[in-house]
Amino acid sequence: MKTKKFEQYDVVRVLEIRAAIGALDDAFNLRAPAIGDVATIIEVYTSPPGYELECSDGNGITQWLMAFSPEDVDLELVKQ
């Protein structure tokens, strides 16, 4: 299986979430990530590999901000 390469500020759609998401009681998460959400890659981590994703609503209000390892989430590129 080929690993997809994404870059900082790529806009992606969440196709699958394999990570367990616990309670989200903080200022950065109004709700949990969901399949179909569109998010921006805020940071690309190399060691260990992963992505910091931010999903905002139409008014620019952050709905969730979360880091995922590539094994925990399946993404597709929406636009660069």
Summarize the structure.
The chain contains no helices and 5 strands. The chain has strands at residues 11-17, 38-46, 49-56, 62-68, 73-79.
Helix-strand blueprint:
Blueprint: E1 11-17, E2 38-46, E3 49-56, E4 62-68, E5 73-79
Antiparallel strand pairs: 1-2, 1-5, 2-3, 3-4
Description:
This protein is mostly beta strands and 80 residues long. Helices cover 0% and strands 48% of the residues. It has no helices and five strands. The chain has strands at residues 11-17, 38-46, 49-56, 62-68, 73-79. A five-stranded antiparallel beta sheet has the order 4-3-2-1-5, with no helix packed on it. The relative contact order is 0.34. The mean pLDDT is 90.
Helix/strand-derived class? mainly beta
Taken in chain order, the helices and strands follow as: EEEEE
Number of helices: 0
Q: Mean pLDDT, nearest integer?
A: 90
Q: Characterize the quaternary organization of these chains.
A: single chain
Shape: globular
Residue share in β-strands:
over 45%
List keywords for this structure.
single chain; 80 residues; mainly beta; 5-stranded antiparallel beta sheet; 5 strands; globular
